[in-house]
Amino acid sequence: MTILFMFLGLVALVLLNVPIAVALGVVAVVAMIATAGPDILPNVALVMFDGSTKFPLLAIPLFILAGAIMNSSGISRRLIAFASALLGFIKGGLSMVTIGASLFFAEISGSAVADVAALGSILIPAMKRRGYPNAFAAAVTSSSATLAVIIPPSIPMILYAVMADSSVVQLFVAGVIPGVLGGFLMMCVAYWFAWRYNFPVEESFHLPRVWATFKDAAWAFLLPVIILGGIFGGVVTATEGAALAVFAALFIGGVIYRELDWPHLREAMMDGGVQTAVVMLLVASSALVGVFLTEQQVPQQLAATIGGLTDNKYVVLALLNVLFLVLGLFLHSAAAIILVVPIVIPLVNAVGIDPVHFGLIVTLNLGIGQQTPPVASVLITACSVAKANIWEVSKYNVYFIAVLLAVLLLVTYVPIVPMALVYFFYG
Amino acid sequence: MPVLARLEYWFERLLELIVMLLTSGLAVIVLLAVIYRKAGASFVWYDEVASIMLAWLTYYGAALAALKRAHIGFPGVVEAMPRKWRLAAVIAGEAIIIGFFALLAWVGWEVLLVLEGSYLISLPTVSNQFTQSVIPIGAVLFILAQLLSLPRTLEEARRGLHHEIPPEILDT
Question: Which of A56, A60, A383, B123 has the most other CB atoms within 10 Å of its CB?
Fold first, then answer.
């Protein structure tokens, strides 16, 4: 009964626009007092402190900071120039460039919102000038930015790994094939649109131009080598890789490209700090809920109940996919991961699903959630940059969302697709 | 500039300075830790100090995010309410938020009293009272941030401004 009241209280507070982090704290405190009395209150301060000291989450501010520094360093412009030289000769070249640049950018940024803000501000106006429908420009930029959360490094993956006590490095590796596949399929959809609406070719293919733009962007390409090479090679942890990325981005932006100045750096640090705090306050207050739910053995009861209905892991995966897709409509990805993953992970383990495999499924589901209103952070950012109507954009975006859903189904029911590289590297 | 706006301006600058120092400090500490570990001289205090700095960044940054009204919420239902109900809902929400952090400040202070005489394991000269002071201080700063940005929030609620989706995106 307490759990039911807790859930209803949480829904009421969220509908009242109380921040989710605070709503979680309030319902947990009320439930704790109701079951254990007011003497439990000092635990609230201790749990809220401990909940915010999870060492692996240190990677989050550092990856956000690295991404923000890169945004301010002219790196996006160079990546776009290279992608344009490489893909601009294809019909609908600018939409290909958008997806290609998103694929590159995803390797150095863990956030889809950062991706869409960095690339969209350059590519959406360029597409409009070349006669692309405004809503299409926003849709292709928005959907391809979601690749940032599938391709490593990825902030939702770091959060999942901590909540599920799983390997963040293996999750990063598992994201590579689905991310590249998603990018390729999105290019196919963009090509279909290009034929249908007769989008222009940007430039003919010239190897010397590809080489020149590659050389100009070479330092930017070093970043994923440093970040992913170091992490995958076992030289550094994910957190240490993130710190290296910060200093590499500072060096490249400040010393090599000389485009990073103090106002941009200040803004980057501020963005990194605030975004981290928003996520970490959620983590801290969810620790309060976690303590209570664990004492009441709710995750175990849920696992037993669903396990009693079916022990078929594919049916369980279908149910969890539906759950996360619905949650993605209404919750930001960080909130959904922090709220739900600790509750469902005993069930996932009980039916024999690999937590790394499940982590990628969760990330993909919530990536789709970033594209589906009403709560669609990435889509809204793209619409804001394009000054486009969200529903008009969604008419084009459904085709790209269909690609993400196809990748989700493939990842869910053909586990070897995400796990092949994990098995190859880690046995 | 009116007194309240000036107060908000300087409060924001102070929080920004703290957040910048913590963010850059974390990056420097993690990088130095990697270099020293590779050189075979790992810092014994690295994990504990970095984790505590993350907690500090959480609560000082949370106050800054509160001032900017950047915490994750779901404003759709409140924004769709008629004006009178909307204002009542905003006031109720603010009261709940301030009440929660007032409780956190109080229990955080109680915990500090209990922690007297205890120190970090890796740095025995640093007291746990100092590290955990972030809970009551952070809670008070959060309340101040809510109060300083409250007039702006009430004005937006009165005028019916949308936060999640800018009007031009809905209406164009």
Answer: A383
